[in-house]
Amino acid sequence: MSAMESLCHLIGVHPRNISKEECLILEAELFSQICAGLKENFRKQYQDYFRLMKFTAEMEFEMLEANFTKLVIRDILLTSEYTVEGLAQYIGVHEDVIHEVICGLNTTPSAILLQRAIDLHRTVRSELYRAIVQKVIAEYFREDEK
């Protein structure tokens, strides 16, 4: 099952029932919404740090943007289901690349690295993704009611 197909199943849409163009639009929207949900999750995890450092909302946003891939990778590693070596092998990069992202030396990793990290993150933190998708669906239904 492809990553998109499993995302579609999370929201109750069967990819075979929509056009290729609709599927691409849905994929882009889901990816955007999931990233926003993940950033909100990370913001909550680091709220004490942000308060201690007296970050403004803009500073929080910038920190989360700049460290998003690093936060996803660290969260995967915190589950202890993958090592740096296993993560590098799954993503298809050398271990040094993962270390550079974790250490903050590479704050602009490739899009494919981020995509594969999120694909893996979704498998180890599936409950978080279900919660984000349920929230996204609820928000869309609320907007339809307006």
What does this structure look like?
- With 146 residues, this protein is mainly alpha-helical.
- 77% of the residues lie in helices and 0% in strands.
- The chain has helices at 3-11, 20-45, 47-52, 57-66, 68-78, 84-91, 95-103, 111-124, 126-145.
The end-to-end distance, rounded to whole angstroms, is: 36 Å
Outline the low-pLDDT stretches.
Answer: none
Mean of residue pLDDT? 89
**Cα-atom radius of gyration:** 16 Å
Strand content: under 5%
Shape: globular
Q: What kind of sheet is the major sheet?
A: none
Would you list the SSEs in sequence order as H and E?
HHHHHHHHH
Return the structural class.
Answer: mainly alpha
Number of helices: 9
The helicity comes to: over 70%
Total beta strand runs: 0
Characteristic terms for this protein:
mainly alpha; 146 residues
How are the SSEs placed, and which strands pair?
Elements: H1 3-11, H2 20-45, H3 47-52, H4 57-66, H5 68-78, H6 84-91, H7 95-103, H8 111-124, H9 126-145
Helix pairs in contact: 2-9, 5-7, 5-8, 6-7, 8-9
Task: Offer a quick outline of the entry.
The protein is mostly helical and 146 residues long. Helices cover 77% and strands 0% of the residues.
